[in-house]
Amino acid sequence: MIKLGVLISGGGTNLQAIIDACTAGTLDAEIVLVIASKPDAYGLKRAQEAGIPTIGLTREVYNEQHAADTLIAEEFTRADAEYIVMAGYMRRVTDPLLAAYPDHVINIHPALLPSFAGAHGIQDAWDKGVKVTGVTVHFANAVYDDGPIIAQQAVEIRKDDTIETLEERIHAVEHELYPATLQLLAEGRLHIGTDRHVYLT
């Protein structure tokens, strides 16, 4: 069983999917701490209802990103987290956290990276008129939406889609792909090669 620390910023639907997978026994993991980038993030309530310790940080804490990520790293280390899972966390992680958890910080992005990186992946793909977009799970590094890609799943943009229906289907894929990918980590089946590509064993 792996111990996860989770970073969130908002509603925490991916967090809920991970909680549900742990409860169902399809993810061999324990969430030891959830940290939110704002104290009123609804995802904190989801964690609390599941009996998971939480910390809600304030805007003042984030005035100095290096200090904020130092604090986050210290709290996750204190909680014995082995991997850090970004689940709708809308801030770039920096050296203090990445150094404390090298190649152990994971992010999910609602597009097929390297296409449509950034905070508006779904909208950007929609505006570009592509026919296929999707979801990417990757190891995070100091560059926003960069780092070795772990898993991807395509989502077709249908003729009858609206941006709302596309968002719903992408989020549904996220809620399946993220716990499944974390289970591969729990099984020790994911490895980063010397070429910085991720391999499944």
Please tell me about this protein's structure.
The chain has six helices and nine strands; from the N terminus they run βαβαβαβαβαββαββ. A seven-stranded mixed sheet has the order 3-2-1-4-5-6-7, with helices on both faces. By secondary structure, it is α/β, with parallel strands linked by helices. Helix 1 crosses helix 6 (163-186). The chain is globular and about 50 Å long. It has a single domain (2-200), classed as Rossmann fold. The model has no long low-confidence stretch (mean pLDDT 96).
Question: Which key terms come to mind for this protein?
Answer:
201 residues, Rossmann fold, seven-stranded mixed sheet, two-stranded antiparallel sheet, 6 helices
Protein topology:
Layout: E1 2-8, H1 13-24, E2 29-36, H2 42-49, E3 54-56, H3 65-78, E4 83-86, H4 95-100, E5 105-109, H5 121-128, E6 132-139, E7 149-156, H6 163-186, E8 190-192, E9 198-200
Helix pairs in contact: 1-6
Percent range for β-strand residues = 15-25%
Radius of gyration: 16 Å
Number of strands: 9
Stretches where pLDDT is under 50 for at least 5 consecutive residues are none
CATH topology: Rossmann fold
**Biggest pleated-sheet summary:** 7 strands, mixed
Domains (count)? 1
**If classified by CATH, what would the architecture be?**
3-Layer(aba) Sandwich
Question: How would you briefly describe this protein structure?
Answer:
This protein is an alpha/beta fold and 201 residues long. Helices cover 36% and strands 24% of the residues. Strands 3-2-1-4-5-6-7 form a seven-stranded mixed β-sheet, with helices on both faces. The chain has a two-stranded antiparallel ribbon with strand order 8-9.
